[in-house]
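Progress narrative, Year 2. Work on SnoaL-like domain-containing protein from Cellulomonas terrae advanced from sequence curation to structure prediction during this period.
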Amino acid sequence: MPASRRALTPACMLLVAGVVASCSGPTDSTPATPSAPATSAEAPSPSPTSSTGLTAADEAEVAEAWEKYWDARVAAFNGPNPDPALWAGFAGDEIIGSETASAQDYLDNGIVFTGDVRTWDVRVISDGGTPVLVGCVDESGWTGTQNGVALPPRDNPVHAQSFGLQRTDDAWLLTYAVDLPAGITC
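Result:
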């Protein structure tokens, strides 16, 4: 995992745990700043569900899936590498199909990205009773070229991202099944 996000993984998990402990969603649009990484973590124990319907252990697993998504997306587009195995175990079929098709298109058309993304303020919220994973993404340090020529910068490199959540027997999977809930900004 790239150092920029590896340092944020413990902070993201602490943030998710804080949301569970307070049983509340975001109260304003001010983005949270990442905190220092934790030096140790306790093994998860059974805990009551939060207002999102997920346990603290589930929310930690979902936050880890968020990190895996961005690691896979960077690896797929920096290659480019259309291997569906990059997405195994944390992404639903729709995400796997879309992301591998994009990576294949990039490969076919000489598009290569370099750099990395930065994420923060990752949390699970309840959107009409359905848990939704949301967080902030900064893609300004992740740039592309096509056949060696720089691509134009993204219109909105800092943005909020959301994913639906689907529970399987083995894991939580991220899906594209939801729109960004109202009021989520970065």
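Confidence is low (pLDDT under 50) at residues 3-50. The chain has four helices and seven strands.
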